[in-house]
Specification:
Layout: E1 3-7, H1 11-22, E2 26-30, E3 43-46, H2 50-60, E4 68-71, H3 92-99, E5 104-107, H4 114-119, E6 121-122, E7 125-126, E8 128-133, H5 136-148, E9 152-157, H6 162-177
Parallel strand pairs: 1-2, 1-3, 3-4, 4-5, 8-9
Antiparallel strand pairs: 5-8, 6-7
């Protein structure tokens, strides 16, 4: 079983912790007041809003060396909800990977809402987590955590696919913010 550290105690952090717990994995959940607490997990989930990532990396970057680091962020403009804030040929995940060259960075969970992670379903479908990354072993470790927690995983490919995952996450958030879909709904996948 894996030991998963989740940095961020909001809805997504708690939902991901519940998924890992359902799979029998141990979880360390760290919030803002835990800045001095050591990161113990071999898988570390950055369950913070994209604007907070730089601070987390400044505080904890060295301690993430050698670990699987999971980026769940959607780098969207939270004032207008009309665009992504990273260059069109990049992604938040690519920026995180560049800042953490000794970590194995994976994109995941950004195309699911906390409600669908907690429920394990999107409508009548089992919740599917899309993942992307360049390290096959890192993706396999994360896939095990997710599938043992009762969810499905689709490997979307290499880390460069994070840009498309972020665009899909942006679309889903935009639809929910404009009340076209529910925050407890979202996209489902039939594989």
């Amino acid at each position: 079983m894996a030991h998963v550290t989740i940095i961020g105690t909001g809805n997504m952090g708690q939902a991901i912790a519940a998924v890992a717990g359902r799979g029998g994995h141990t979880v360390q959940l760290l919030g803002r007041t835990d800045a001095a607490t050591q990161v113990d997990g071999e898988i570390v989930v950055l369950a913070v809003p994209y604007p907070a990532v730089a601070e987390v990396l400044a505080e904890r970057g060295d301690s993430l060396a050698g670990k699987v680091v999971v980026d769940i962020t959607n780098p969207l403009n939270f004032e207008t909800f009309d665009s992504l804030t990273v260059p069109s040929d990049s992604s938040a995940t690519a920026e995180i990977a560049a800042a953490l060259p000794r970590s194995r960075v994976v994109k995941a969970f950004n195309t699911t809402f906390a409600g669908t992670l907690a429920a394990g379903t999107v409508g009548a479908l089992t919740t599917t987590v899309l993942i992307a990354g360049d390290d096959a072993e890192a993706k396999a470790s994360l896939t095990d955590v997710i599938t043992s927690g009762g969810l499905n995983v689709i490997d979307a490919g290499a880390l460069v696919r994070a840009r498309e995952l972020e665009a899909l996450g942006f679309l889903q958030i935009g639809l929910a913010a404009s009340e076209k879909i529910s925050w407890t709904g979202g996209f489902g996948a039939v594989a």
